[in-house]
Structures are given as structure tokens and as C-alpha cells.
Amino acid sequence: MEWILGLLILILGGIAILVIYLSDRISVFETLLGLNPKVTTDKLAEHVNFGPNPFGDLSGENLWKAMCGDDIDDEDIEVGDVDSMRPRYQLVITRHIEMLLEDGRFDGRAGERSPVKSLLRIPMLRGSVESFLPFVEASRLYEIGQEVEQKPEKSDKLAEEVDELVDDLFKKVQLERTTSFGRSLLPTVDDDGFDDDDLDLPDEIIEEPDVPALPPSESESVDKSTD
């Protein structure tokens, strides 16, 4: 009887897992059958290609507007509890800022220029979301990345400007900056003119210990004696 009971428990557990698995895909089946008009083909394709959106229907410029407290024109978009999303959104906008500076620095080193990415897809622990930043601020962040590579002596001033830009962006989305983005994301130049972002030297120079010479082998001793 005990083995029958154990078998039933395993079967019921498997059924429960299957039900949970299928419940996440009900909207997909409804879309394919045309039963759920809110789940569009575009949303289905985005879910398949990039995974689930942690912010629900909010993405791109609509996500930015929601965080700014602005109205969203699309009535089909459910905004939800924006305040509870802000800590997670801070990770998104922070990564967007980092990537703009990185792109600028990378292109600056290569002597190239590329289009400024005001709209970027940001990967997250589960899924991803499109992040939007106003073009003026996004362009300036990219330019700062370029300038810090071309004129490293201005790194301190550029770092201050990065923090000012971040303060303005964070204020719009009701966030507060707690660390210096400029100091952490841009290289700094010391008094001697060395860029600590380019040099990666060890803190201490380890000298090789003096190793005593090995005594001559027996064959060498025989050769010397015969000479």
C-alpha cells in the first residue's frame, strides 16, 4: 500500500507541475486562436525573442513616461503600481547610462562614431525591457565617453558633468543618486598624468629570491678531473 501511495503522490506532483507550466502559456494559446485581443502578435514575438517583460505592458518611452508620472496615450496599457517598480527601474536606467558611456569610450578609442542609442534593450535576471532616455541627455553621455578618451586631462570635469546629467534624469523619474556615476564609470588621472584606467599594475613588486647555485653533478666533476 505504501508504494501505491508514493506512486500517487508522484503522479499528482507531476500533474501540478504540468498545470503550472501550461498556465503561463495560456495567453500564447489564446493569441494563436484569436481569443485574446490584448495579447498582440508583436507582444508574443517579443516574449519569445527576449523573454518576459518585468514591467508588464510598460516598455521603452511608455516606461519612461510612467516613471515620470506622465500620461500614456495607449488605453490598452496597464500601468500598475509604478512606485513598487522604481527600485527595479533604477537598475534599468543605470545600465542604460553605463552603456552609453561605454559606447562613447569604445568609439573614441577607435576614432569612430556610431548612432546614439536613446532606446536600448536592457537584459535583466528574468527577461528584458527596452529602456528610453531623452535624446539630448543620451547624446551628451555618449559625447562625454568620446571626450574622456580624446582629452583625459578633462576627466574630473567630465565626471562632474556626468553626475549632473544623472541628477537631472533621476529627478525626472523620481529617483535619487547615491553614488558618483562619473567617478565610477570614467577613468581618473593622477597628478603625474597617468590614467588609472589604462594601467593595471600590482600593488607590490615581488622580487625573485636569491637561489643558491646547485653543486656540480658527478659527471661534471669527472670531466673536470680528467682535464
What's a concise summary of this model?
This protein is mainly alpha-helical and 227 residues long.
Provide the fold topology:
Layout: H1 2-23, H2 26-33, H3 41-50, H4 60-68, H5 82-110, E1 119-123, E2 128-132, H6 135-150, H7 155-172, H8 181-185, H9 218-226
Antiparallel strand pairs: 1-2
Would you write up a description of this structure?
β1 and β2 form a beta hairpin. 19% of the residues are buried. This protein starts with a helix and ends with a helix. It has nine helices and two strands, in the order αααααββαααα. It has two domains: 38 residues, no CATH class; 140 residues, no CATH class. 56% of the residues lie in helices and 4% in strands. The longest helix has 29 residues. It is elongated. It has 227 residues and is mainly alpha-helical. Strands 1-2 form a two-stranded antiparallel sheet.
Strand content bin: under 5%
**Uncertain segments:** 29-37, 190-194, 198-214
Bulk shape: elongated
Number of domains: 2
Give the proportion of residues in helices: 55-70%
**What is the β-strand count?**
2
Order of helices and strands: HHHHHEEHHHH
Rounded to an integer in angstroms, the radius of gyration calculated over CA atoms is 30 Å
Structural class: mainly alpha
How far is the N terminus from the C terminus?
A: 94 Å
The largest beta-sheet arranges its strands as 1-2
Major sheet summary line:
2 strands, antiparallel
Q: Work out the helix count.
A: 9
**Kindly state the mean pLDDT as a whole number?**
77
